[in-house]
Design goal:
The protein is mainly alpha-helical and 123 residues long. The chain has one domain. 24% of the residues are buried.
Length: 123
């Protein structure tokens, strides 16, 4: 019973996080790559069919398969992730009048930067 509950929670989290990644395609404030990688982690632990679907996706599949094979991210993907996250989170920081919103942006910004810095580089 606990396993079924865990699978449903992980599946829900996987698709919710993938949704954030999809939004990140159109709104560069959200970095797509970290969300897709995290969604893949949850899907791999909940439903192999959906995990394979994500791995074979024409937009995310190459990055995801390279990451899972231990090859890491391309330099281009890393630079794009850091630059877009920095630019759009920075703009949002200065435009946001809410101090709590500003704190959240400061807390979120290191995530894509840390992934880019610590992830293995391929190609």
């Amino acid at each position: 019973m606990w396993r079924e509950i865990k699978n449903k929670v992980f599946l829900s989290l996987g698709f919710a996080i993938l949704g954030l990644g999809l939004v990140g395609i159109f709104i560069p404030l959200l970095p797509t790559t970290p969300f897709v990688l995290l969604a893949a982690w949850f899907l791999a632990r909940s439903n192999k069919r959906y995990h394979e679907w994500l791995r074979s996706n024409r937009y995310f599949g190459d990055t995801l398969r390279g990451w899972e094979a231990g090859e890491g991210l391309t330099k281009k993907a890393k630079w794009r992730m850091v630059i877009l996250a920095t630019v759009f989170i920075g703009i949002s920081f200065f435009v946001c009048p809410n101090p709590v919103g500003r704190v959240m942006m400061v807390l979120v910004w290191p995530i894509p930067v840390a992934i880019a810095v610590f992830a293995r580089t391929r190609g």
